[in-house]
Structure formats: structure tokens, C-alpha cells
């Protein structure tokens, strides 16, 4: 047994049918445009290297080696002077061997950068060193402006990476963020 319902019995069938077709047409156009945009951006992400998309090709990745004779400030001395130091890393900054570590004060982590030869405190990095680092780590041209970001970072920078220097170049509106986060995935 089949039940047939005539649309005309309940409403004016032609008007409802015409309105539903019009709504369907515009709704499908809207959804179709979204699918085209998603396809194009998805193809871009697939066909191009993710490091190129991140802008890593614009940054010079120096392979500075840490020489054992450069470490004259011992780890035990560091712990004597900074007993609450956590996440200690030995790294290089502008061809200089440094200690990077964090001290948690009042639930706010403070990042430190220490010279591994003399134990001299290098952080916070002054603007002149930030500009020097920008020329050392990139080949983007001349520095247009420099700004220290301590709170309310732009959307492309994680708040965990603060404080950070924002260095704007005059080429293509490129920006380099120089931060000293202990977690390498946070900032480079």
C-alpha cells in the first residue's frame, strides 16, 4: 500500500516548490564556494613543503657546534646561583655558547640566557642584539622596525613564546620573531 500526498492539498504547491528550489540553489552555491576554497587551500598545503609554508626557507639555520672548551661556567655553579632553575639547555646564540633555563616565580616562568663562558646574564636581550640576531638568522634585507612584545601577542605567535622581539623587514612585509622559549616547538 502506497500513500501519496498531494502538496496542493496542504499549501500552495507551486509557491513552496519555487521557494525551496531558490533556497536550495543559493545554499548549494554558498556550500560549493566553500568546497572550492577548501580544495584550493588543501591542495596548496599538500603540494608545497610545510617548512616553506611556515617561512623556514627565509631563516638561515646555522649549525653552530658547542665546543667543550667554551663551557667554563659549570652547571654546579649555575645551580648555586640559580637554585630554582628548571629546563636547563646548553645552546648557541650568535655563535656564543649559552645556558637557557626557566625559573618559575609566582606561577609565571621567567626565561634566562646565560653566557656559558663567564656566567654573565644575557637576558633580557637588548634591541641591538635582537637586530644583530635578525641579520644573523635571516637573509631578508634591511630591518624596518623592532618591537618588544611582552603581552598580547599577535595571532601568529603563541603566548608561551613571550617575551619576544618582533623584527619587521622591508621586504614583502616579512616579520621575524626572536624569542627564547625553552620548548623548541614554540618558537624558532
Description:
The structure is a single chain. The chain is an alpha+beta fold and 188 residues long. It contains five helices and six strands; from the N terminus they run H-H-H-H-E-E-E-H-E-E-E. It has helices at 7-10, 13-47, 50-54, 75-81, 127-137, and strands at residues 86-93, 96-105, 108-115, 143-149, 164-169, 175-179. The strands form two sheets. It has a three-stranded antiparallel β-sheet, with no helix packed on it. Strands 4-5-6 form a three-stranded antiparallel β-sheet, with helices on one face. The longest helix has 35 residues, at 13-47. The radius of gyration is 28 Å and the shape is elongated.
Measured as a percent range, the helix fraction is: 25-40%
- Quaternary structure annotation: single chain
Major sheet details: 3 strands, antiparallel
User: Which spans of ≥5 residues are poorly predicted at pLDDT below 50?
Assistant: 182-188
Distance between the termini: 71 Å
Gross morphology is elongated
Classify the secondary structure makeup into a structural class.
alpha+beta
Provide the gyration radius in Å: 28 Å
Number of helices: 5
Write the element-wise H/E pattern from the N-terminal end onward.
Answer: HHHHEEEHEEE
Which percent range describes the beta-strand content?
Answer: 15-25%
Would you count the extended β strands for me?
Answer: 6
Mean model confidence by pLDDT: 82
- Write out the strand line-up for the largest beta sheet, numbering strands in chain order: 1-2-3
